[in-house]
């Protein structure tokens, strides 16, 4: 029976609570309140009510007929987290943590963000619940995600630029933790992925499992059976763990897709499970990109949301026991999948989601038409349009589908 983390927040060898002594008490308070909240039917009913009436859940399960016909292989379905309010799965977790913060009497939220989707979700729920919100964001990501920075400010959040390191998500997280150490009495730290010290990986999983729970019910209603393969992108890994968790004890192949950037044999990638080693980052033990001296190697990906040197400890555990297969997709492959879904199905995905889609396309072509592949479309691509404009060189009359015909 799958039953992790244990009472110490460990997923096998991974996870735990590697933080300064000043944060131990705040973490214990959050863990205690989370345990009570998850057993409280009133709390759970309020969480579900807000998901339904404010965020727009359940999100649809969409069959991709044109893509399926083009590939001439397995049927492809999309779990449409891009249709959530704010445009990504991040809102599921933000609503849950905001409710917990409210239950604990906290009125100020700290968050960090890379692609901006968690920052927008945090700013959104802060506005909804009447809380103050500070979002830390690397200077490089601020440039890449100008639209989301404007959205956060419009929603009333203060966006704090981070100029240290590579000026991306890892550095924003460092600054958010430093700020929290000094302000943990009246601030709630809203982490956006299944990373960080216990109980955050478990908490984010519990607030994201709604993705997989819904998908399982919807797929059984549509196909009368479970999918053969489920694919999701993995940076920190919150959409993937939310999708995978309800299927862990079923006979379903689960594939997590990391960002290979310019190739895993180059220094320019963010493939933390594929190329990483065990170490501690942001309060938990997991796989991360580091040199022989334990110094972080700066990750790279065209996707700001996957540009993180570590991975959630539960993903590290699932890789170690062989339950989930983790593979990688390059920038070039993700861009091609981004264009393919846009042109074939009229759906513009986030670049993060395009990594999962690229792997799903590759797998579907090797399967027969009685089989099915389910992809977690974790977010929509509005935020990535400017990035794509800088990278895409395809002409309007180019046939992007030609390379995929089976």
Automatic annotation (TrEMBL):
Q: Which reaction does it catalyse?
A: (1S,2R)-1-C-(indol-3-yl)glycerol 3-phosphate + L-serine = D-glyceraldehyde 3-phosphate + L-tryptophan + H2O
Pathway info: Amino-acid biosynthesis; L-tryptophan biosynthesis; L-tryptophan from chorismate: step 5/5
Q: Which GO terms describe its cellular component?
A: cytoplasm
**Cofactors required:** pyridoxal 5'-phosphate
* Keywords recorded for this protein, A-Z: Amino-acid biosynthesis, Aromatic amino acid biosynthesis, Lyase, Pyridoxal phosphate, Tryptophan biosynthesis
Looking at the record, the residues that make up the Tryptophan synthase beta chain-like PALP domain are 56-379
Would I find Mitochondrion among this entry's keywords?
no
Q: Which GO terms describe its molecular function?
A: tryptophan synthase activity
Modified positions (N6-(pyridoxal phosphate)lysine) are: 90
What SUPFAM superfamilies does this protein's entry cite? Tryptophan synthase beta subunit-like PLP-dependent enzymes
| Zinc in keyword set | no
EC numbers for this chain: 4.2.1.20
Subunit comment for this entry? Tetramer of two alpha and two beta chains.
Regarding protein family, the annotation reads: Belongs to the TrpB family.
Q: What does this protein do?
A: The beta subunit is responsible for the synthesis of L-tryptophan from indole and L-serine.
Q: What is this protein called?
A: Tryptophan synthase beta chain
